Amino acid sequence: MSLNLIGLRTVATFSARKLLMNRRWALVVMLGALIALVMGYAATEDGANMHFASDLMAMLLLAFLLPVLSLIYGASLIRNEMDDRSIVQVITAPLDRRMSYLGYYLGLVMVLCVLISLVTAVGGLAFLAFSPERDGGVQLVLTFIALQCLGVLVYSALFLLLGTVLKQPIYLGLFYIFIWEGFVASVPGSIGEFTVRYQLQSVASELTDLGFVSSMPGNGALAALALLLVTAALLGAGAFSLRKKEIS
After folding, report:
1. CB under 8 Å to 234, separation ≥6 — which residues?
2. C-alpha angle 239/245/248, rounded to 5°?
3. What is the dihedral of CA 110, 164, 226, 232, to 10 degrees?
4. % helix / strand / coil in the chain, to the nearest 5?
5. Which residues fall within 8 angstroms of residue 36, CB to CB, at 6 or more apart?
6. 162, 170 in Cβ contact below 8 A?
7. Which residues lie closer than 8 Å to 239 by C-beta, 6 or more apart?
8. Which has the closest alpha carbon to 123: 62, 37, 52, 46?
9. What is the pLDDT of residues 178-235, one digit of tens each?
């Protein structure tokens, strides 16, 4: 196995372990409990069905949990190591900084996919446990898990880049989530198409016939391809930024 592959695996494993051991897991538990409570309660309301569950998941998971957790974990991963200078051990190792950056990204993606999948499963099971209608419920949960893992690829690349180039990435990240992804995505017209959330919903329209996401316009395959291309561009920009960055 080449030095680059060994180094890539080492950095990915190290960053994943560091993220999992961070106290932020308490926040994930709280968010998971909140989402389970909301979905469980919503399932007891009159008219609650799988269409309602899909709409609720789109709002709670795609629009809130996914970008917020990606920001919390992604923006701080490299930035915190720069601030406490622990990143010096990585950038002085005989490994190209671009490979180190990719290792950080892979570790971040693995952790976020696991955490978000767990929260989604818990929330979905809470709804199914109290809902009189369960047909298609498991498939719906799996669909949203897959959608969010696709979203994790993009959001992780974006917020890891922000954490690399900015000293206070959280502010721009919050602006992006709540203004661009939240407000702009709901503005009538084609401008909303330039958001990750919109493209994820377009992909969802090909995967489920439940809820408002099933009627989203656009081509799901092209939306998925666009998200992957944006991810690659963001990864390239982040790797280049880390390679050129002066670490004092």
Report:
1. 154, 157, 158, 161
2. 140
3. -80
4. 80, 0, 20
5. 122, 123, 125, 126
6. no
7. 97, 98, 101, 102
8. 37
9. 999 888 777 776 787 889 999 999 999 999 999 999 888 888 899 999 999 999 999 9
Q: Name the nearest CA neighbour of 198 among 22, 188, 115.
A: 188
Q: Which two tokens stand for residue 170?
A: 């959280």
d(CA 142, CA 248): 45
- DSSP-derived 3-state class of residue 45: coil
How deeply is 61 buried, as exposed, middle or buried, from its count of CB atoms within 10 A (0-12, 13-18, 19+)?
buried
User: What residue ranges do the domains of the chain occupy?
Assistant: 3-244
C-alpha distances (whole Å) from 182 to each of 28, 58, 105, 195, 215 are: 21, 12, 25, 9, 19
What global pTM score does this model have?
0.93
